[in-house]
Amino acid sequence: MKKFIYTAFIFFTSIQMVSAQRAPRLSSPDVDKNDNVTFRYYAPNAKEVLLSTEILSKELAMKKDAQGVWTATISKVKPDIYPYSFKVDGVEVADPNNTYVFANERFKRSIVNIPGDKPLVHALRNVPHGKISYRYYTSKTLNTTRRLLVYTPPGFNMHDGKKYPVLYLIHGGSDTEETWTKVGKANLIADNLIADKKAVPMIIVMPYGNVRPAPMPDFTNDVINDIIPFIESNYPVHTDTEHRAVAGFSVGGGQTLNIGLTNTDKFSYIFSYAPYTATEEFAKNFTNWNPDAKKINEQLKLFTISVGTEDFLYESVEGNLAMFKEKKIEVEPIIVYGGHTWMNCKLFLANSLQQVFK
Amino acid sequence: MKKFIYTAFIFFTSIQMVSAQRAPRLSSPDVDKNDNVTFRYYAPNAKEVLLSTEILSKELAMKKDAQGVWTATISKVKPDIYPYSFKVDGVEVADPNNTYVFANERFKRSIVNIPGDKPLVHALRNVPHGKISYRYYTSKTLNTTRRLLVYTPPGFNMHDGKKYPVLYLIHGGSDTEETWTKVGKANLIADNLIADKKAVPMIIVMPYGNVRPAPMPDFTNDVINDIIPFIESNYPVHTDTEHRAVAGFSVGGGQTLNIGLTNTDKFSYIFSYAPYTATEEFAKNFTNWNPDAKKINEQLKLFTISVGTEDFLYESVEGNLAMFKEKKIEVEPIIVYGGHTWMNCKLFLANSLQQVFK
Predict the structure, then answer these.
(1) Cα distance between residue B354 and residue B223, in whole Å
(2) In A, residues 86-105, which contact B (CB 8 Å cutoff)?
(3) What is the ipTM of this complex?
(4) In angstroms, rounded to a whole number, what is the distance separating the alpha carbons of residues B334 and A273?
(5) Is residue B21 exposed (0-12), middle (13-18) or buried (19+ Cβ within 10 Å)?
(6) Shortest Cα–Cα distance, A357 to chain B (Å)
(7) What domains can you pick out in chain B, each with its CATH number?
(8) Has residue B6 got a pLDDT over 80?
């Protein structure tokens, strides 16, 4: 890959002369055909640069060359998409040469894609692609205009009379409405599964789930009273319970439980991924919960909770599962290896998409 | 604004306990009603933190408090959207507490919005909003699948028989297909001008203009042979020259000149903003150019070149204008105060949108 590095250097020389504060462009990350990945960062005056990545459980010291470029290579990486960042003398930075940024409100990390030989479930394949639309809606609950993303499947036509089911898909706690597409690749996963006839064509709505600054009202009210009406008045969708699903990750997984289980008349599918449930709303809803389990179990066509065994929330999720079991609520646990990561989260979604609306 | 800071600290305490590597959430940037803006960055061990912003022409030293939070305030900022970053002991970082990131391939900066009292041309107002769709298209020219964004105006209906004009809008040199919406707010500018009846409803196509790694083929071919056919076969658009426009900023402004002036049979409007023209393609097209000026002037309904007097490309643009004048090509110069900035770029677009397709 060396030739790319120096070509890029030359290409930018002319612009650099007028913007001397910019570092040279580097090729980073570089992924080769053997799934080795090389990271580069320009910092001639730094004393230490560490590579922090979800590929490895520990940070990796990078090495500086004579030009001030720090480099680290990780060999034979398991194909997937991984977040990473550089720690430059203790300061965490995203990779300035990588456009793919983890959409998040609290940290700035980059993303590296190791495609591998066989296309993964989130790969950009040569199949028909749906659209992601960035929309504004008015939230009366929160008294503001908010954003949401809407995935419409390949062949979607607003006006041909066909109606679609809807999955409401909620991001993690400091993520944004873009995290499910930018990091979770929800649109590509749906494209692939629909092309392979493993999922039915559906609309996926990805709202912005954070409610800040405090005090934090119920996001549940925003979903029920603002987002669902906005979607149902702007898209050709089925409006019965059997064609509505809710899913979410981490804080969004907790929100999913709150939204779904307090509105079982509105959702037939609840998919909670590594839920974070140490919230006031969850305590309020479920501490002294006395559900009509028989009715709920009849209404819900599928309720799953997914988590990785290395997830810091694993024990908490075990507690959630025990609680639902004690209340006689039928929930399917999906336990896999791995941590509180978007690598796992993609798999959880792929699993749900193959089960929902069938 | 102090109360927000501490509320946010408390809200995140529980999650922080399990992810100790994360810095505390801060409220940054804070914009008050008098247009004062405060930036905060947590770095207890840093020796120096500078604020680099396009609000000021110089970097500003930030001050550390006992908790390790560095702060700087700029008073009475002229309402606009400004890029900024922190330089932490020489390392440039985006603001970890700010979601609004400058979409760019070479640097990671954040964006602060100073809304002011009266809504600016790019403000999120309570008017009907268009949609931004993220699409994939196949580029035969570049032998790959590429992304582009498509703005459709409020009330757009794919199938009601109405046809729209199309503006092709190209970002700057290391920007991405998202920069015109995320930084340039092209969608909100269009929403506002359409609501105020100052612009006609149109489709705005924002392709990814970078062609890397080298060698760099003509992006022009991709626009003409791949992007325009993709749009014209997927959207209800007029396909005659009078309903097609091209615009772009910086490197994209140079691409605009190449695309538009070598295809005057395809575009009636050319809007070049602070064009960067020290490229092989521009030299090839225009060094020994011998145009049929009369024919070109008849075909083009409007050709403008915009630039700020403080732009590092100002002299270069003066040279471009002189060259076109010498060749008898009618071009309208739009000279304003200011530098090579997206603050100016937004105004250039707002100006074009009020003149195009009329």
Answers:
(1) 24
(2) 88-94, 96-99, 101, 103-105
(3) 0.78
(4) 54
(5) exposed
(6) 25
(7) 27-114 (2.60.40.10), 131-353 (3.40.50.1820)
(8) no
